[in-house]
Amino acid sequence: MYADSVVTASTLVKRLRTVGSDLPSSLAAQIVALGGGVTPFLLALLDDRPAADEDEGPGAAEACADCGQQHDNRAWARLHAVDLLTELREPAAIDAMLNIIVHTSSDEPIHDKVVERLPDFGGDALEPTLAALARTTKETETAESLCCVLSALGVRDERILHALLDLLTVHPRAAAMYLTEYGDAAACPALLAVIAASHADVEDTSERMEVLDLVDAYANLGGELPAAVKAKIDAWLGG
Which of 17, 91, 107, 221 would bridge 77 by S-S if both were Cys, CB 3.0 to 4.6 A apart? Predict the structure, then answer.
């Protein structure tokens, strides 16, 4: 009976490599119904290595509607594996998904997929994500992605706030978005300090947008700009 279930799990996961961008709901339901028994096969796929009984084979490339890149069937299968492991809320998937964030860039669809889905694990992902962040230099893209995940976990923890405030010192615009997502008004003093210290170049669109995002985040968290700071921002931005 156990051997039959293993064969079924292996067979169904192999089919993920043939479906391209659209995962049939019936196949997804069959895989999820297997529960933890399918996890090793999905993790092997996520790790971009074949399971012991699988043969490598070329897959037809297919264009992604979101990024425009060509993905072969294995690439699509990895994206589906992230969704399925998240649906299963499989704890073993958390470290595997964090490993992807650490070893890929935001230019890669699998990176963005993990950043999107990992928050669905909620509090279970808190400690592993904080541990990954502690091993990461805060100036890096990896740290920014990990902060994005932390902000969306739906968990209140002082360590998350501290991580987002650290990010504010190196990537203000990203931190503004994540602080808004996190939703803690305790961030307002730090946001106000960055806004007040800003020296926006009115000719530089990116700097204008950064200031606007900081001001929006501050307002969304309940802050009200002091009159002097508001006057300065309005003068810069033509408000």
Answer: 17
